Amino acid sequence: MAGVVSNYEPLPVHDLQRFLWNHRGSTGHVNQVWPRLYLGDAFTARDKSVLRQLGITHIVNAAYGRYRINTGPEFYRDLNIDFYGVEADDHPHFNLSEYFFPAAQFIGAGLQSPNGRVLVHCAMGISRAASIVLAFLMISEGMSLLDALRSVSEHRDISPNPGFLEQLRQLDIKLEAKKRSRST
C-alpha cells in the first residue's frame, strides 16, 4: 500500500532520560550488554590484558582521534583486532547518526565472525559508545529505542546526551516506518 503513514512516536527525550535515571546498571569499566558485545571506557580500551582476557576481536572507538582517545589499528596490531573509529564529540549538536549504520554493520560482522567479541567504547562508555550500541540493537536486532535502552541499562549505567537521544528517536521512527511499510 503506497503512502503508508506511521503514527509511531517514541517517548520524548525528557521521558527517555527519566527512564534511564530510574534504571541504573553497573558502573564498572566494561560490561557485557548483549551476547559477546561489550560496552566500556577508555581504561578498558587501553588495557590489552583485559582485552585478551575478554577475547575481544573487534573494537569500535566512538571517541577516536588525535585529541580524543588515540587508539587505532596500530595500537592493537599485536592483538590482531579489527578496528573502526568514529571521531565523535560528546556534544548534543554532534551528528552521530551518520555513523549508526556503518557502526552497526561493523559490530554485526564482528559478532558473526568465529569467536567474535566486540568492544564499543568512548571516554566513559555512557554516551557516545552507548548510543552506537543502542543504534546497533535497533538496526540489527529490530528493537525499539525503549527496548534497546531497557536491555543495555540492565547491564550498564548509560546516559546518552539529549542530542544523541533525539537522533536515536529519529532512527526509531524511521525503522518503525520501514517495518510497517514491509508488512503492508
Any overview of this molecule?
With 184 residues, this protein is α/β, with parallel strands linked by helices. The chain has one domain: Alpha-Beta Complex (Protein-Tyrosine Phosphatase, Chain A). It has seven helices and five strands. The protein has a five-stranded mixed β-sheet. Helix 1 packs across helix 7, helix 5 packs across helix 6 and helix 5 runs parallel beside helix 7. The longest helix has 22 residues. The N and C termini lie close together (6 Å).
Please tag this protein with its features.
Protein-Tyrosine Phosphatase, Chain A, alpha/beta, five-stranded mixed sheet, 43% helix, 7 helices, 184 residues, globular
Strand-residue proportion: 5-15%
Total E-strand runs: 5
Poorly predicted parts:
none
Rg to the nearest angstrom? 16 Å
Task: Examine the secondary-structure arrangement and name the CATH architecture.
Answer: Alpha-Beta Complex
Strand order of the largest sheet: 1-2-5-3-4
Sheet/helix structural class: alpha/beta
Note the topology:
Blueprint: H1 13-22, E1 30-34, E2 37-40, H2 42-46, H3 48-54, E3 58-61, E4 82-85, H4 100-112, E5 118-121, H5 128-141, H6 145-153, H7 162-183
Parallel strand pairs: 2-5, 3-4, 3-5
Antiparallel strand pairs: 1-2
What's this model, at a glance?
This protein is of the alpha/beta class. The protein has seven helices and five strands. About 40% of the residues are buried.
